[in-house]
Amino acid sequence: MEERKDILWRVYLIYFIICLFGVAIISRVFFIQFSEGDKWRAQAEKFSTRVFEIEAVRGNIYDVNGSLLATSLPYFEAGMDVNTDAITKKIFDDNVDSLSLCLADLFKDKSSKQYRKELVKARKDHDRWVVLQRDVSYTDLQKMKKFPILRKGKNRGGFVYLQTNKRERPFQFLAARTIGKLNENGTGKSYGLEAAFDSILIGTTGERTMQKIAGGVWRPINSDNEIDPKDGSDIVTTIDINVQDVAENSLKNCLRQHGADHGCLILMEIKTGEVKAIANLKRNNKDTSQYLENFNYAVAQATVPGSTFKLPSLVAVMEDFDVKLDEIVDIGEGICYYSNVPVRDSHHPQKSKVTVQEIFEESSNVGVTKIITRYYAKDPQKYIDRLYKMNLGTPLKIALPGEAVPYIKNTDDKTWSKISLPWISYGYESRITPLQILTFYSAVANDGKMMRPMFVKEVKKRGKVIKSYAPEVINEAICSKKTVNKAKKMMEGVVLNGTGKALKASNYQIAGKTGTAQMGMVNGKMTYQASFVGYFPADNPKYSCIVVISAPSGDAYYGGAVAGPVFKDVADKVYSTSLEIHREINAVQPQYAMKAPAVKQGSREDIETILKTLKIKTNAGDEKADWVSIVSNDSVSVSLQSKNTEDALKRGIVPNLIGMTAQDALYLLENNGMRVKIIGNGAVSSQSIEAGKTFTKGTQIILQLI
Known about the structure:
Blueprint: H1 2-35, H2 37-46, E1 49-54, E2 61-62, E3 68-80, H3 89-107, H4 112-124, E4 130-137, H5 138-144, H6 153-157, E5 159-168, H7 176-179, H8 192-196, H9 198-201, E6 206-213, E7 217-220, E8 234-237, H10 241-258, E9 262-269, E10 275-283, E11 291-292, H11 297-300, H12 310-321, E12 328-330, E13 335-338, E14 341-344, E15 353-355, H13 356-361, H14 365-376, H15 380-389, E16 407-408, H16 420-425, E17 430-431, H17 434-445, E18 450-451, E19 456-461, E20 464-468, E21 473-475, H18 481-497, E22 511-522, E23 525-536, E24 543-550, H19 559-562, H20 564-577, E25 602-603, H21 604-613, E26 617-619, E27 627-632, E28 637-642, H22 645-650, H23 662-671, E29 675-680, E30 684-687, E31 700-705
Parallel strand pairs: 2-8, 26-28, 29-31
Antiparallel strand pairs: 1-6, 2-3, 3-4, 3-5, 6-7, 8-19, 9-10, 9-24, 10-11, 12-15, 13-14, 16-17, 18-21, 19-20, 22-23, 23-24, 25-27, 27-28, 30-31
Helix pairs in contact: 3-4, 10-20, 12-14, 12-18
C-alpha cells in the first residue's frame, strides 16, 4: 500500500511539473505575441526575402533621320559585403586603405579617410552591406571592378551592384516638351511622346529575389534573374532635329529681341501631316533672359486666333455664296459699328472701296466683318455650321496627350450677342490652338484635303520595323477646288502686295497670312499676340508653318514684323536643304544645247571632242585640216573653218593666232623655232608680230592673252 502511494505521489509531482511548464510556455507565447510582438516582427522583417521587379530597358526615341532623341542609359548602385567569409581580417586590413583611396579618387565626394572610417565601422559592426556609391555610370563601374578587394568579385570580394536605367536626351532641351517624360517619382505629370507611347517603349519587367539584411538594405540572393526583362521597342518620330534646332534658336532670338513672354512654332509636311519641328518657349521668371520649354503652347493652349481666322471666314463665305475676289466692299474710313461697338482697322485705308482680295491682303477687320455680315446676318448659324464642316470646332485627336478643345461660339450659346458674328469673323470670341489653325491652312495648301498631324512614323524592334503609321485623312475636302484656288491666290497676295511683304524670298514664293490679336490689359497696358501662318513654295506647296509670339513688350507687335522673320528663317533652312522642292534647272533635257558657247580656235580633234560632248551641231568644213577656227552659223550650231597655220609657219610666215589657246599657240610656234613670251591668261587677243610677216628661227613673239 505504501509503495502504491509513493508511486502515485511521484506521478502527481511529474504531472504538476509538466502542467507548470505548459502554463509557462503558454504564458510566454502570449507575452511574446502581445507584449513583444512588434519587436520580433521588426526583427524578422530584417531577414525577410521578397521578389523585386527588374525594370526593362526602355525603348529609344529617334528623329526622322535616325538621330537619337531619348535613350535609357544604365546606372548602378554599387555595394559591398565587408563581412563575407572570403574577406579575412588580413585581407581587409591590408587593402582597406588602398580601396578607400581609389573610391575617393574616382567619385571625389568624400575623402579617403571618410571612406575608410565607414568601411572599418561596417566591418566592426558585422554589417553585411555597405552602399559604396549610387548612380554609378557603366564606365566607372568597370573601374571599380579593378579596385582592391572588389576585383575578387561577388563571392570572394563581396562586390555587388544593381542596375537601374535613367532617361537621357542627347540634344538636351531640343523638342523636350514633345519628347516628354514620365511621372516616375510621383510628382508632376507625364506628357509628350514618352507618355503617349509608353506601352510600346516600356517593355516587360523581369523578377529577382532579394533579401533584406541589417540596416533595411536589400541585396540579391542569386546572381541570375528568376525572369529576365524584355526591352521595350523603339519609335521613329517625324521630327527633323536639324530643322528643330533652327526653329528653336530663331524663336528664342525673336522672343529675346521683342521681350515676349512666350511663343511657339510648328513646321508640318502638307501632304502627310508629318510634324517636322515643334518648339514652345517661355520666359523664365527667375532669369528673364532665359527661355525654357515647360508647356506645349502649340498643342495645349487655345487662344483667340486674331487675323489668321480671316481665311476660314472668307473660305466659308466663298464656299456658301460663291463670293468673287473682285467683289467690292465699302470700308469707309476703316471703322464701323455693331450695336454701338466699334470695329477698327489697324491703319487708315488708302481708299474706301476695296475688293475681297485687297481686304485679305491688307487684313482689314472692317472689310471682313462687312462681307460676312452681308451674307450671314440673316442666318449666322449657317456660318458657324460651315466652320464646323471644315473641322475648326473639333479636336484633331493627335497622338500627343493634352490637346486643347477648340471653342467656336454657337448661336444657341447663352453669350451669343449681336456682335458675335462680326467678332468671330475676324478672330475673336473663339479659342483655337496654333496646331489646329495650321492644320486648316495646310488643308488649303493641299487642295482641300485635311491631314491629321502625325508625330511618329514607325515602331522598331532591334532595328527592324514592326509597325508603320500611315498618314490619316481628317476631311477629304474642306471646300471645293474653286474655293481653294481663291484662297491660295489671297494668301499669295499677302506676301506679294500686303502685310507680309517682308517675307518675299528671292528663290521661292511664300503664301500665308499675318495675325495680330489683342489679348487683354496687363499692368494697364494692352498685350498682343503676333502670328504668321502659311506655306511654301507657293507654286508647289510642300511645307506649312505657324509662328505665334505672345505678349511682345516692345513697340512692334504686328504679325508680319514680329512672327514673319522667324517663319522665313525656318523656311530658308528647309528650302536650302530640301532638294526635292527646288525647281529643276532643265526639266526636259534637250538633244542639243539651246545656245552654242564661245569656242576658242585650236586643234580640230580637241574641238570636235568638246562639241560632241556638249551635243552642239557642227559643220565639218575641210576634214583634212588639223587646225581650225570657229564660225557660229546660228544659236545652236557652229562651222569648223580650216586655218592654214602649220603651212604658214613652215614657209616662215607668222599665222593669225587671235582666239587660239596659249597651249596650242606655244605648241605651234616653238615647234617652228620661235621664242614665245605670254602675258595674261585665256585666249590670244593680240600678237607682237602681225599675221603675214616673215620670221627666222629664234625670233621672239609676244602674245597678249585675255
